[in-house]
Amino acid sequence: MTRVRFAPSPTGYLHVGGARTALFNWLFARHNKGTFVLRIEDTDQERSTEASIEHIIEAMQWLGINWDEYYRQTERSKRHQQAALELMDRKLAYEHDGAWWFRVPEQGELTFHDALLGDITFRHEQLKDFVIRRSDGSFVYNFVVVVDDADMRITHVIRGDDHTTNTPRQILLYQALEKPLPQFAHLPMILGPDRTRLSKRHGVTSVLEYRRRGFLPEAMVNFLARLGWSHGDQEVFTGDQLIELFTLQGVGSSAAVFDEVKLHWINQQHMKAADLDRIVELVKPFALKDDLITEAMWDQAGKDRLLTGAKLLRDRSKTFADLASSMRVLFPVPLEKEENVVLSQQKKEVLQAVIGALSTIEEFTPENVQEAVRTALKERGVGLRDVAHDYRMAITGTGVGPGLFDMMSVIGRDCVKSRLKEIL
RNA sequence: GUCCCCAUCAUCUAGCGGCCUAGGAUACCGGGUUUUCAUCCCGGCGGCAGGGGUUCAAAUCCCCUUGGGGACACCA
Asked: Which of A62, A216, A304, A380 has the most CB atoms at less than 10 Å from its CB?
């Protein structure tokens, strides 16, 4: 039975590196029909906070990384004490300056097999004796991790590369405790654009910050998975596909740079594929964020119009923030226009006729609008090309966007007419 | 400094001795489609860090150099 764990220390938010570690463990567990354990390593009382725990949990839930078992390391201190005592009794550890030290043999070397890195050898003399219990009675990470992983019968320890050098000490502890060794797999790090370890100074590193900025969780998962893992030439994956396809063999061994540009592209791919109802639901808070559009206006717009609007606009949106701002034209709010439209007298007369034609349409569908407008223009010898940009600017405030008639239809007759009148 | 790991286009990567005059994706640059933009389609740009071996054959195996990352706490 496969058992893996994600063991974050709650000293801050869940960052993208931790999220990827969690994801790989979770994918591995789900792929192998195993168990995924979430263990909060909150033994550092100074730095651990409840808020961090809540944040980590919220981030994991957002990503859809669910767990089968949940532990808090502080709740296990009795077991840690028991295990430490055992080592003391068996003279494998000794006391010095009030702390308990694990004895590392002076001679010899230790080789372990890493599923990703291959065989790695350390000489004992490089390890030196190390503290397992501090003089204040608390336990050190390298010790509790081993006791917990052994107790929880973790079969595969999949974690960041930065733990590679901890591994030999931990193996020594497994042996001292007479526990079976798990398989180790150390994932390459995620780097910032300057090729140093990803950190705050690289900008956004909090997973939930990406939710706030309008990314889809499945896009985040897809992107994180592709950072270090691959499956041939495929770039876009659903969650289920990732579970089906994920193996450690597909994981690379060199560090990867976090590329936000590609994240945007992947998010766009997932936005195009997502269920429209869900898109509308998720974009709502972004639309309401700046107070320009009220909840009442949103509800008044009606489901169909929101659905149609989202459908028209999502192809050119990288995030929900983008989509929300382009959906603003659907509401009866003043538009910020990219440029001022000034019509000639002749064009004004044409526009009068067009507005008149719009009034006669029975059902304000794109097809009907198109026919009415084209007819009105044709009768006056004006090409659509001659006026499309002006009308678009008046109606949407921007020179770019979906088809003019689609937009007119979804924005609605009254709003379109009043916006067109503004440029008369 | 010591130890550990890594090394294919700007970036993510395919490649696990011959299918490689190195494939895909993002980005970028052209073209097509469109009333515009985006999407979409087509095309282009661009890389095996360097040097030695091994082999009939090396991006792939070995060694060295260089470069990068990480670890060296009574933090996790």
From this structure: A216
Query: Which nucleotide is closest, CA of A116 to its C1'?
Result: B5
Compute the radius of gyration of chain A from its Cα atoms: 30
Query: Shortest CA–C1' contact from A389: which nucleotide?
Result: B36
Q: What is the per-residue DSSP string for A40-102?
A: E----TTT--HHHHHHHHHHHHHHT---SEEEEGGGGHHHHHHHHHHHHHTTSEEEETTEEEE
Quickly give A269 CA vs B40 C1' distance in Å.
13
Query: How many Å does it take to go from CA A5 to C1' B67?
Result: 35
Alpha helices (runs of H) in A195-319, residue ranges in sequence order = 207-212, 217-226, 239-245, 260-273, 276-288, 295-301, 303-313
A249 touches strand B (CB under 7 A): yes
Q: What value of ipTM does the predicted structure carry?
A: 0.95
Confidence (pTM): 0.95
pLDDT class of A377 with cuts at 50, 70, 90: very high
| Cross-strand partners of A160 | A187
Tens of pLDDT, residue by residue over A405-423, are 999 999 999 999 999 999 8
| pLDDT, tens only, A212-238 | 999 999 999 999 999 999 999 999 999
The closest nt to A132, taking CA to C1', is B74
Residue closest to A132 by CA, chosen among A72, A184, A80: A80
A118 Cβ nearer than 7 Å to chain B strand: yes
A399 Cβ within 7 A of any nucleic strand B atom = yes
pLDDT at A95 over 90: yes
pLDDT at A290: 85
